[in-house]
Amino acid sequence: MSTTSSTARRGGARPVDPAAPWAGPNRRYDIIKEGLVALLVVGLLAIGLAAVFSSPDDKSVTLAQWAKADPADFVTTATMELDGTSTSASYGAPYNTNGDGASLGPLKLQKWAGVRVPVNSAQQMVVDPLKTSVDPAVQTALATWQAASADQQLKWATNYDTAISKAPGNDPTKVSSGDYGPVPAMTAGLLELAKTGALDGILATGGAFYQTNYTVSLLFLADGGYLGALGDANHLGGDQWGMMNEMGSWPGQAWLWLYTFWYQVPPFSSSGNADALVWGLMMLLTLGLVLVPFIPGVRDLPRLIPIHRLVWRDYYSRYGSTRS
Amino acid sequence: MSAPATSHRGAPVTLTGRVRQRWLEKLPPEKLLPEEQPAYVASWIYVFGVATIAALAWVLLSGVVLTLEGPAWYHVSVVGHFFNSLHLWGVELFFFFMVIHLWGKFWMAAWRGRRRLTWVTGVVAFLASIGTAFTGYLMQTNFDSQWISTQAKDGLNSVGIGAWFNVLDLGQVMLLHVVTAPLALGVITVWHVLLVRRRGVVPPLEAAESTGTTMEGEK
Question: Which of 1.10.10.60, 3.40.50.720, 1.20.810.10, 3.30.300.20 is the CATH number of B109-202?
Fold first, then answer.
């Protein structure tokens, strides 16, 4: 500490009332100049970083790309939409009532929120698009499907789904013969529709002209394994700290480190209810951060761990403190 | 003849006059645009507050440029891509400065002396920034936005938020990012800054009354 003395260094000095107007020494300050200098320096820094490092912009995945690159996964996913076992078909709120969804203890917030974004996976992702097909075989299969009872439809789709899971390499083209009804023809028809690129447009527009809602397209894409494999290959998976990662080596949303951290550790990493548990925990911690000034113990940490001695070291060396 | 704007005691009688008077009482010009600061405001840690605001200004500026040509512009234009990059790096700098500012204020116990609301608005601004940035990542209309939206939906749906905030709805996300979120962030940021100006910068922990000396250049 500096040898500069002051009256405050004498024993028994009273602490400054932080609520009272400052009565101690001041220094010159130009708030507008400070702002302009900051704007200039930060601007040069941002422009430099942008010019040197650019930014990622990997093209979006299309359904056509998926159908061509991994037709087996595509057909399997379409089948699962029909038998109601895909992620979206069995999701629950806000898309449908086919699942309970996550819960936070006794709080079933997901279910209570209700079906506000209704999605019928089988109908919107498979049946409706097939209506646009000009292939007579597809239309015949579709007519057979629509004429059948719901139980019969489920039986056909489930049989085909099971057969695919038992086929070599889960390849739909290698399934053994069975009672699949029109399902193989329908899923094959959807595959062909997707390969031409038509399905991208059909799902995106949903029959409308103007459209900005991609819920059905994205849910269908996410139901398959293709998108997930691409994400994992780019270290974006949930168990790869993916939430704070970015394509390539660019920085991502690093500020989500704590949120994604919980997904890496038990019990969250092995819980089927992790999304709600982590959200609940983060909401609690966030509330704690907001209320730091009101929480005894936490609000005392700055006094107990004197990092402030570094921040104000010049001031203390010149004027001393109540500890001096 | 028009009615006088003040009562016989000189107090304003109009709503405008009363608001102006209260504003000047709480935040006089010399507090809003000061030419001096307490001597203890002399550390690098104080730079990060204004640096955060400067980064926000560049984020807003580059964002406004991006709106001029539409959301697909940056996919096909070198100039558009540069402004997208400027937007991204502005955001990265913004969060970098803001987190340091936040930690600094924590270790300085900056909520002391009737400054608790300043802390609260600062943290809320941080949270609003996370939400605003998140909607930006969602509306990139590339692989990133496909991936992030399909992943994030589960967390939001799990607590019921997804029923109202559908991350797969590009139109909703885009409007939130371009209008609602920055407006909310702007309001809370202005409120935070005004509180800082009104209450002043918190004195050091363990600062003693009546120091009796002055630094070079001090008044």
Answer: 1.20.810.10
